[in-house]
Amino acid sequence: MGRRSDHSREELRALMLRAAHEHLAEVGFARFSAREVAKRVGYSIGSVYNVFGSLDALMLAVNTRTFTEWVAHLEAALAASGDDRIKALVEGYFSFAEAHPNLWMAIYDHRLPPDMAVPEADAGERAALTGLVEGEVAAFLGRPRDAVTERLNRSLIAIVHGHCSFALTGSFALLGESDAVGLALARVREVLNAWRTPGARLAEGDP
To answer: pTM to 2 decimals?
Structure first.
């Protein structure tokens, strides 16, 4: 039987979210179960859906929590980076994914229904990740954050993400490559150094 009066709604949401995050980290997206989350917190599965509304809403909240932890991980990496902050970002991207593969992959495995939007609060927490990276990119280039740095930032994240995904899924190993981090960092440095070269044209339409 569920302990329906043990916690306030806010406390219950936090309790369930923590349990769901731990469960996802252990079993991955394909085996994630709202029923298991309910079991872990000692409430009924109906209570889980009453608090979150749907399994998609629960997964959305869990993935947002992962984004928050990811940002904290990158901030810690930057704090200990010394002068090479770009290297710290790339290595921090990989090290978080490697330490939490199920959580990291679930961000991209889960798809929201077409009629379900990401709540503003969640969108803000998720945007903190790209905002952190964009700030470092803009600082490296010695220019303010604008539409140019925003578009460049997306491409750079795609480069690192692709290398990281290949590494975690074993695709690089099949190709005989053992230094995915080094490859990703080299590609990022090439792009950034080209954009920082004197006379380089930085326009919104540039690739």
So the answer is: 0.89
